[in-house]
Amino acid sequence: MADNLxxxxxxxxxxxxxxxxxxxxxxxxxRFRMTLDGKSRVKLNQAGYVSSVKVGRSFVHxxxxxxxxxxxxxxxxxxxxxxxxxxALSVLHDNLRERVLRGMPPLPEGFQLPPGIxxxxxxxxxxxxxx
Length: 131
What we know:
Arc Repressor Mutant, subunit A, three-stranded antiparallel beta sheet, 3 strands, 50% helix
């Protein structure tokens, strides 16, 4: 792909795919310790992958249709500082993409959580087993 996405930009596309909703920079920073701003925001907006709207003092981002199409293609997770993480993300992304190409549910539906359930609910540890 000729867009030359960085590993961080690829990760942000995956993050927005997984959230499948609008998400603000303060929430991105609080939950994931990253934001979409500066050159990367402009680049992803101009490519049509992400829509960003300023709400108050912060930007709110959502994956656009072109962004959903882009995550179906190969993404760059090659980071010399995080080789294992990059490899894991590449394998996960490749496998998810293959599932979609085989006719499994499209990514938006596959990643949306049931109403009233948040990603934090899914990621929190289970309650202790009663003794």
